[in-house]
Amino acid sequence: MSDSKRRLRPDPKRSPYLLWIFCFLVIPWLPINGFYIFLAQTFFYTLIAVIGLNLLLGLSGQMSLGQAGFYALGAYGSALTALKLGWPIPLSIAFGTVLAGLGGGLVGVFALRTRGLYLAMTTLAVGYVLDILAQRWIGLTGGAMGLSAIPQIEFGQTKSGPVVFFYFAGAAVIVIQLLSDFIHDGRFGRNLRAIRESEVFAASVGIQVSRWKAGIFAFAAALAGMGGAFFAHQSGFVGSDAFTVRLSIALLIAAVVGGLGTKSGPFLGTLILLGIVEVIAGIDKYGLFIYGLILVTVLLAFPKGAAGVLDKLNTKLGLSDKDTRLLEDPKSSSKQQRSELALSTSIVQGASLCIQSISKSYSGLKAVDTVSIDVLPNTVHGLIGPNGAGKSTIINMIAGVYRPDTGRITLGDQDISALSIADRANLGLARTFQNLQLIEGITVLDNVMLGVKHQQSYSKDFFDWLFKNSLENKERQESINILNFLGLDHLADRLPGELPYGHRKLLELARAIAQRPRILLLDEPIAGMNTQEAKEIAQVLLKLRHLGITIVLVEHNMEFVMSVCDSLSVLNFGRLIAHGTPEEIQNNPTVIEAYLGTGVKKT
Ligand SMILES: Nc1ncnc2c1ncn2[C@@H]1O[C@H](COP(=O)(O)OP(=O)(O)OP(=O)(O)O)[C@@H](O)[C@H]1O
């Protein structure tokens, strides 16, 4: 396969679905006893709940110990509507799923202000509250005595009921697995992984972090609810005992044992979980203890779970995808010129930036004191000054990480002072960080694609992915052009962790360029680089300016600053002490005394 085709390959690996469909058609007709059909049904609906948790925890990094509560919402919602209102089962299952999703969304909006351990504790508490409600609201749920005679899928004949249920739940799993793969493969997965890495970073590439977090929380809750709804119609009975924290832990174990954040992890983890449940059925008293033991063992021995073990095996057998890395001449100048041309067509014209009398104090310390700076469009502006002068604070105020105590910031003719980080990014502000921000678990190319602006409504994405993958391919091509431009295209299939520091810095710049910025903010772009690498970055910045981007940078290397900047602002103790061309600044006695000393030459 040619490189360009391989790069543009539609990523979703669809062959597992053929296996699925084959098993799906064959299993019910095999001469196996009804117990195995029952087990397969249980496997299907448990898998649905585990897929949700895998997306939540594995991709977005949010821990939920309350999935049993949403599972209960789905089970009661579906059981009650079918039992008391006589709704058809597919409709009642859909209702249970939506009810759990709404519950998850509601919890999401409030709970997602917390993170890490606190989020885990909050979701645990939500799970407890829903469990206690199920126990105590006897009039509705029947408490521990439960609801019985819940309609089961019979389709006229009780005899064929289990097989119909098998198909029904199996079809739901295929759809959910497709959705999960879609999320893993494309923009959704990249955005969620970015949020897991750093919320400030995710917002800086234009992701509306709280919406995405609440959305994936609701989706995972809906899938837990769908699992619960299937459970209710399988057993025909729902009692509060089924929804304790033990269920939440079992789902968590399946997700972790299978391999968090992997596409096949939930399938493998659920298989292992149900296998264990069958084995320990006779020693139920010690069930929780055994679950815990398995979790600890897997975490220590196989941190990437069963999917990680399979992956290693595939690599050993030469079946892995990673063997198809792209190795080309890293710097073919004609290729770079072509990509520069392609890039020039997608670059948006740079904007002006106007900072008016901004100040910022940190608990009494005035880090920035009534600073005003004007940056003209299509120029490179440098912010310089000694350590602690307030440069990074200004960059962070421009990007929206900090709000100025006073003053205002205008991008073009738009006042952005009160906008969120993501809104500013979507208006054309892109940035790099003093401490590199890259997503380690995805390829170099995917890191760049994270910056590419989404060009169509998200609702169209799924069908595009399923049938053509044209949008993803277009975004890939755009990102490859940028990697070509920076001479990094031969590394497109690598992971960022495999790159030397200089290339990692370039990769961050590539991601920022992919955002098609009107203003590019660079916080110490050559820190840690050698002289040759610094010269290459200087060339890149001059080309970017030539293409029309406005650049604001903070840098301590004066030779570099003087060679790329059109104008400079000098800060000292939070105050602006000078403003002008590099030549004017080099000859300014106040600046020489406060910062430069003598001997800085423009190169
Ligand atoms: N989050 C914070 N909380 C408290 N003080 C802070 C915070 N961030 C910065 N400061 C203080 O504000 C002042 C300005 O810091 P800032 O990082 O903006 O300076 P800088 O010019 O970027 O320095 P450097 O060149 O060392 O990065 C310093 O005295 C610093 O200690």
Automatic annotation (TrEMBL):
Chief location bin: membrane
Gene3D superfamilies for the chain: P-loop containing nucleotide triphosphate hydrolases
Intracellular or extracellular location(s): Cell membrane
PROSITE patterns (alphabetical): ABC_TRANSPORTER_2
Keyword Transcription among record annotations: no
Highest taxon, organism lineage: Bacteria
Name of this chain's protein: Amino acid/amide ABC transporter membrane protein 2 (HAAT family) /amino acid/amide ABC transporter ATP-binding protein 1 (HAAT family)
Organism of this sequence: Jezberella montanilacus
